[in-house]
Amino acid sequence: MTETTTLAELALRRPSRADARRNYDSLIGAARNSFAELGTEAPLEEIARRADVGIATLYRNFPTREALIESVYLEEVLAVCNAAGEVAHLEPWEALLAWLRRVVTYVGAKRVLVEGLNRDSNTFKACRLGLYEAGAPLLERAQAAKLVRPDVAIDDVIRLVAGIAGIGSTTEEQRDRILAIALDGLKRAA
Amino acid sequence: MTETTTLAELALRRPSRADARRNYDSLIGAARNSFAELGTEAPLEEIARRADVGIATLYRNFPTREALIESVYLEEVLAVCNAAGEVAHLEPWEALLAWLRRVVTYVGAKRVLVEGLNRDSNTFKACRLGLYEAGAPLLERAQAAKLVRPDVAIDDVIRLVAGIAGIGSTTEEQRDRILAIALDGLKRAA
DNA sequence: CATATAAGTGGAGGGTTCCTCCGTTTAGCG
DNA sequence: CGCTAAACGGAGGAACCCTCCACTTATATG
């Protein structure tokens, strides 16, 4: 389970001492707000200030800005992975569709974060793998039911969907229309 | 013609005095190199230095970093627009396909620039309109030949393709495969 | 409980980049 | 040739980055 690895990584990086852990959590919270409000270029000193923590504490927990962005990002990804379980009761195609829409919503909202982080980092890779593992059963089920062309893999699908979700300056409605086009391509027999 | 508007805008912003125009061009060149080499966060003072120009001159021509990025970006977009004319001699579907591949190549290569610029800026909007105008005839021709579903507009298509092109950390090969899926959705009858 | 100690903390400060202001220079016109 | 408006360069204050180190505190142990 890659989620386990990911979760373990997060847990491992969380300090063991009580006061340190409190500061760590406070920093993550302050960072989430600051990034949402000011973008990923938000001054780190501002984040430390909001977290009521010295700047050095921020740097000790998150040596680089990217490390901080990643940690905020990680939580969001886990939520999407969990959503895969929540749609399991639906029909194969509906389940896949519902989850992919969830991915779109999520990536759309968090694009700011995604753009700010290093795509080659371990955490980012782990997140991607986590998404693959969460989505793979849904895809395979739909393929087994002959509803989705058999020549695509889950990473193709997620990248396709995530790419569309990441399109800027568009309406909810247009995004849905574009997504529908792409998903039509998915349904088509090979 | 939106390209004309765009071009006119660029021309308008170009200084009229000979020495000023020389500096302006030198700055654009230096910026292109610096962005390619150091990313869009390249120090503006470094760009000014490379252009052999005072920092104030840079700021006078481009009040913000974004304005500078936009100006570099503009040139690239014009090249893609022109490419639409170069494929006109092909069969309808082939022409559309060829041009969309060109868009993908271009967006992929210049993602660094695209990410650095403000998607709500006038210049960016003008570029988008320019791309629409360049691509629309190709799409319409393919639709008239019943090769593309009639319920899509050029902005849908370009956003779809551009979204895929912007996907990070992937191979050329996977990108092509994903693009093929999406374009299959395009071909399908409504 | 006392206390040793390892872990954690805050903020001063040196370095870099940003961006404005203003005194000086120069292109282009009459 | 000389005038003037346009353009120029760079000094310098402010914001931010990140490291270093002297001080504080949680927790394990006797």
UniProtKB/TrEMBL annotation, chains A, B:
<dbReference type="GO" id="GO:0000976">
    <property type="term" value="F:transcription cis-regulatory region binding"/>
</dbReference>
<feature type="domain" description="HTH tetR-type">
    <location>
        <begin position="21"/>
        <end position="80"/>
    </location>
</feature>
<dbReference type="Pfam" id="PF21597">
    <property type="entry name" value="TetR_C_43"/>
</dbReference>
<keyword id="KW-0805">Transcription regulation</keyword>
<keyword id="KW-0238">DNA-binding</keyword>
<dbReference type="InterPro" id="IPR036271">
    <property type="entry name" value="Tet_transcr_reg_TetR-rel_C_sf"/>
</dbReference>
<feature type="DNA-binding region" description="H-T-H motif">
    <location>
        <begin position="43"/>
        <end position="62"/>
    </location>
</feature>
<protein>
    <submittedName>
        <fullName>TetR family transcriptional regulator</fullName>
    </submittedName>
</protein>
<keyword id="KW-0804">Transcription</keyword>
<dbReference type="Pfam" id="PF00440">
    <property type="entry name" value="TetR_N"/>
</dbReference>
<dbReference type="InterPro" id="IPR001647">
    <property type="entry name" value="HTH_TetR"/>
</dbReference>
<dbReference type="InterPro" id="IPR009057">
    <property type="entry name" value="Homeodomain-like_sf"/>
</dbReference>
<dbReference type="InterPro" id="IPR050109">
    <property type="entry name" value="HTH-type_TetR-like_transc_reg"/>
</dbReference>
<dbReference type="GO" id="GO:0003700">
    <property type="term" value="F:DNA-binding transcription factor activity"/>
</dbReference>
<dbReference type="InterPro" id="IPR049445">
    <property type="entry name" value="TetR_SbtR-like_C"/>
</dbReference>
